[in-house]
Amino acid sequence: MIVPILLITIVWVFGIHGMIIATPILYPFWYDNLNANINAAATGQVVPHFMTEQFFQWFIWIGGAGATLSLAFLMAFFGKSEFSKKMGRFTLVPGIFNINEPLIFGVPIVMNPFFAIPFVLAPVVMGIITYLAMGVFHLVNYPIAIAPWTLPAPIGAMMATGLDWRAAVLAIINIIVAGIIYYPFFKAFDKNMIAKEQEA
Fold first, then answer.
1. How far is CA 29 from CA 34, 45, 49, 128, in A?
2. Is 161:52 a contact under the CB 8 Å cutoff?
3. HSE value, Cβ hemisphere, 13 Å, CA-based, for 56
4. Cβ proximity of 21 and 7 under 8 Å
């Protein structure tokens, strides 16, 4: 579970779209697992797989690769620099619907030493939390359906897990965890932007 997260986020940090790795290499495996889950749910059997594309979409890539919805929220509501405030307000709504290219290339996150670590670390931690919740403690149902990727995360998480309300709670917890991880890096970035704006 951790390896694909690392591969996808690390190449994104260098400006390469992470889905070029996921689509040809990982998606066939993930969708085979999802098909097995769908068939098991339809026939009343035990759903066998936690690791599906929907597992990543709704519990790890919240707001897009790097779990950047939390960063957009921090910028919009906690930013002190004009740049952070404007960028957060501009990217928050697309982020809610899992579109984060304006944030990735607008901040930018690509090749940005302030955000490289949380962009990789937040999804890894979210993946571990989700694995524990689903695969170890069985607190949340495994994904058994494909929900459109542009839904807000809590709604998509519920739909993908057969309307399990606990999935929505888990998605919200992961958004908060990502925000906590991003926060110190965001504060350092915002402070740097304030200094630049004062110089200008």
1. 9, 21, 11, 20
2. no
3. 26
4. yes
pLDDT in tens, 125-170: 999 999 999 999 999 999 999 999 999 999 999 999 999 999 999 9
Cα Rg of the chain (Å, integer) = 17
Q: Global pTM? A: 0.94
Query: What is the Cα–Cα distance from 161 to 43, expressed in whole angstroms?
Result: 16
Mention every residue, 6+ apart, whose C-beta is less than 8 A from residue 164: 140, 141, 158
Q: Which residues contact 101 (CB under 8 A, 6 or more apart)?
A: 64
Tokens at 98, concatenated: 């899992």
B/e letters for 155-193, b = 16+ CB within 10 Å, e = fewer, are ebbbbbbeebeebbbbbeebbebbbebbeebbbebbeeb
Token reading at 35: 């098909």
Contact 134, 143 (CB under 8 A): no
CA atoms lying within 13 Å on the CB side of residue 177: 22
